[in-house]
User: What shape does this take?
Amino acid sequence: QVQLAESGGGLAQAGDSLRLSCAASGRDVGSYAMGWFRQAPGREREFVAGVNWSGGSTDYAEPVKGRFTISRDNAKNTAYLQMNGLTPEDTAVYYCFVGTTGWGTYDYWGQGTQVTVSS
Assistant: This one.
């Protein structure tokens, strides 16, 4: 089993930056895709960003392209989401995932971390 713990969320103002971390435990996730979804109040959970096992391939949702950067450190079993140029529309609970069978698979989830951006 894989346990995921997100951190780094909090309160920010429009234009600020935050960096989310997703630390995996219980198993080495260095061979798996990792990434982030988010869910805003009253909305469905939506994909934000993903990174392949090596960090060499990434994917982003259109609303965050050019502002967010996903990365990973397999030595630390951790993925990161650097969020720059935050807007109130980025307010959501951010969930980390691990996909064990490639892109589009989401097998393990964290509990989420709240990001709130004020204007």
